[in-house]
């Protein structure tokens, strides 16, 4: 048992020793059909294979539908970043406000990615849920991102 514990501790030490800071910035614009998608919330995440995906940052589009979001992560391997976009574009279900999440992957190894103009009507989205649920998810991610940034984690 002791050799296994020692091996695991040494492995963890090696990962933390050789991990390096990585930064990713994504810029672009969102449309909903022909309409500017302002105030659209997004979460920049990094895909992890073993544990939960990391929240790198949160942001919302400006009045003109443009956005810039930057996140940092300390990882041993190259990060696999993606953007989760919370929107109500193309979502109609009676009088209840509904939202979907669209996931947009960012190419690995690129630290500054110009996404261009994305029409959310043309993107695959999750099954619609109440916007209050999606909004709570965004606020939780924003809080986690803020805590990580405060402590430099």
From TrEMBL:
<dbReference type="GO" id="GO:0009986">
    <property type="term" value="C:cell surface"/>
</dbReference>
<dbReference type="InterPro" id="IPR001534">
    <property type="entry name" value="Transthyretin-like"/>
</dbReference>
<keyword id="KW-0964">Secreted</keyword>
<dbReference type="GO" id="GO:0005576">
    <property type="term" value="C:extracellular region"/>
</dbReference>
<protein>
    <recommendedName>
        <fullName>Transthyretin/hydroxyisourate hydrolase domain-containing protein</fullName>
    </recommendedName>
</protein>
<comment type="similarity">
    <text>Belongs to the nematode transthyretin-like family.</text>
</comment>
<feature type="signal peptide">
    <location>
        <begin position="1"/>
        <end position="19"/>
    </location>
</feature>
<dbReference type="InterPro" id="IPR038479">
    <property type="entry name" value="Transthyretin-like_sf"/>
</dbReference>
<keyword id="KW-0732">Signal</keyword>
<dbReference type="Pfam" id="PF01060">
    <property type="entry name" value="TTR-52"/>
</dbReference>
